[in-house]
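S1.2 Input.
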Amino acid sequence: MKLRTVAALGAITLGTALTPALASASQPAIGDTSVFATVPFPGHPFGVAVDRDRVYVWTSVGDFFAGMMGNKVRLDRGMKYCEDLLAKNPKNAEALVWHGGGLLVRAVHAYTKGDDANGDKLWKTGIEEMNNAAALAPDNMKVKIGRSATLIGYAQSGWDPSDSQSRVLLESALLDYETVYRWQKPNFIRVPIHSRGELLFGLASGWSILGNDRKAREYLMLIQKECRKTPYEAEARRWLARKWPLVIQHDCIGCHVSRSG
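S1.3 Output.
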């Protein structure tokens, strides 16, 4: 699942605004969405989910989003933030999953420059870090989201169906996203609309990439129910009206960051 074009990097932000993955406090109870509030975010039509009881480090997360969109200086700054956290606690799963995602971005930059050897090394290490984060914190919703959103986004950007490793990674990301949905389902209506839409579209897109049209259509129909009278519902209807089988390509609705900074 190697992505060799920087132009597609925006896809890896798919769904990552669902929870603040670099927040330092303890994990909320599974299914408890009462901690979430929607706050304004410049250029973002729906706002993003934040935790009322935590100090959210906007700059660090913003650096990662900017880095994913091609801003190397801000990516380096975000990576340094994670590295400082990991120096204090190597088992900080949330910092590790973000750092692993940052290494994938650096791998793409290396591939773009023709440095395949370094790209392969960065890619391998990044995947290992994200997998290790998932193993360290199997019940951490923020870790599941950070890893799954990144892998699903990369699959949208460049997919080799003959790559067995890619298939295993993507399926594991989708199963984790389904776990997140299951945890949040009892109070899903209280989750901000952006978070609902991106999570469900990530599932619809990922399953369509794997050729599971039944699941993909089920999630599109769920979007119509859970995201009524929003751009998500309109987009889901457009996909359902098309000729199947197909691969669903969804761009995150909203703008997380600017490229400057």
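S1.4 Remarks. The longest strand covers residues 36-39.
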